[in-house]
Design brief:
The complex is a heterodimer of chains A (106) and B (120).
Chain A lengths: L3 E4 L2 E4 L5 E7 L7 E6 L6 E5 L3 E2 L7 E6 L2 E6 L9 E6 L10 E5 L1
Chain B lengths: L3 E3 L3 E3 L5 E7 L8 E7 L5 E8 L4 E4 L7 E6 L4 E6 L8 E9 L5 E5 L3 E5 L2
Parallel strand pairs in B: 2-11
Antiparallel strand pairs in B: 1-3, 3-8, 4-5, 4-9, 5-6, 7-8, 9-10, 9-11
Chain lengths: 106, 120
């Protein structure tokens, strides 16, 4: 079973600042990794897949990078609607999720 | 754009079973995986398993093997997820999602979620 560890658990930032979220896999997942955004009370939304490809309609301020075991999601300049919880998910071996990173307003 | 509509909230006793449905209004139901993900109150997302209706075969996260059954009905374009021997810790929102071919078989369309409460 592949375990994904996200850090930090909480990121406190102000609008306009840059956010960098990390996801580390216990075994290589190649580039089979996605990032999702979840706003409280809503279903998750796919942001990035295959480590670096933005899903339809996702603003260019969101970018993903990494391969193997280390991945990053970067939000270049936080907008008010970006304060949410972000999850990484691998599909190299079934479909486990990381524990999530909450991006909150400082 | 596909739309996934799930069945309504359920309240169940420990030891019983629950079946949640997920109806797809999009095309090509049989050729897309439907995944199931749950979220306990205040917790993160947990992948449970998925099915490809075309082959009627499902695979499961190890944790749910033997207690969860995922099926699909091509005629009604509906997927189902059943959990047996319910425990209070199964209280969660259960989501179905489509693994989209155009998005690398990641979950690009989600149902609205179904709350399942397990309580005596």
């Amino acid at each position: 079973e592949i375990v994904l560890t996200q850090s930090p658990a909480t990121l406190s930032l102000s609008p306009g600042e840059r956010a960098t979220l990390s996801c580390r896999a216990s075994h290589s997942v190649s580039s089979y990794l996605a990032w999702y955004q979840q706003i409280p009370g809503q279903a998750p939304r796919l942001l990035i897949y295959d480590a670096s490809i933005r899903a339809n309609g996702v603003p260019p301020r969101f970018s993903g990078s990494g391969s193997g075991t280390d991945f990053r999601l970067t939000i270049s300049s936080l907008e008010p609607e970006d304060f949410a919880v972000y999850y990484c998910q691998q599909r190299r071996d079934q479909g486990s999720f990381g524990g999530g990173t909450k991006v909150e307003i400082k | 754009q596909a739309l996934l509509v799930q069945s309504g909230a359920e309240v169940k006793k420990p030891g019983s079973s629950v079946r949640v449905s997920c109806r797809s209004s999009g095309e090509n139901f049989r050729t897309y995986y439907t995944s199931w993900v749950r979220q306990a109150p205040g917790q993160g997302l947990e992948w449970m398993g998925r099915i490809l209706p075309k082959f009627t075969t499902a695979n499961y996260a190890q944790k749910f093997q033997g207690r969860v059954t995922i099926t699909a009905d091509e005629l009604t374009t509906t997927a189902y997820m059943e959990i047996s021997s319910l425990r209070p810790e199964d209280t969660a929102i259960y989501y179905c999602a489509r693994d989209g071919a155009s998005t690398g078989y990641y979950m690009d369309v989600w149902g609205q979620g179904t709350a399942v409460i397990v309580s005596s």
